[in-house]
Design a protein that fits this description.
This protein has five helices and three strands, in the order αβββαααα. The chain has a single domain, classed as Sufe protein. Chain: A (Alpha-Beta Complex), CATH 3.90.1010. It is α+β, with helices and mostly antiparallel strands. Helix 3 packs antiparallel against helix 5. It has a three-stranded antiparallel sheet with strand order 1-2-3, covered by helices on one side.
Length: 147
Amino acid sequence: MNDAVRDLYQAIIVEHGRSPRCRGPLPSATHEASVDNPLCGDRVTLRLLVADGAIRSAAYEAQGCTLSLAAASLLATRLGGASLADARALVDRFAAFVREPPDTPVPDAASLGDLAAFAGVREFKSRQSCATLAAEAFRRAVAGLRG
């Protein structure tokens, strides 16, 4: 990744950290999970409105570092309107992407869209859990659902 692209992606993370999307309560939520990282104190609660095998709406509440806030914002934005199958595939791709060694090419990174901004996290193992906290909350929220 060249410096200009890295700068752009860092800007996306900072922007979502400062001006999060999908943040707040979701009173009509059908599924919810909270996950915290006891090592750094980050906490994400993800709420989903699931109907007919699709995520109709997603929202989160979080406290923590810019990485965990931005990841929750970007992920919630992508989850709204997705089928459960597509959402699970996205979350799995994202979590795997973040945990790959920094020099490992990821053939489907483009399918992550703005979530690919977290490529830089791959260089810092201690920060990977911050970036994947919302992904873990999603997995827990939909555990046991088909689709």
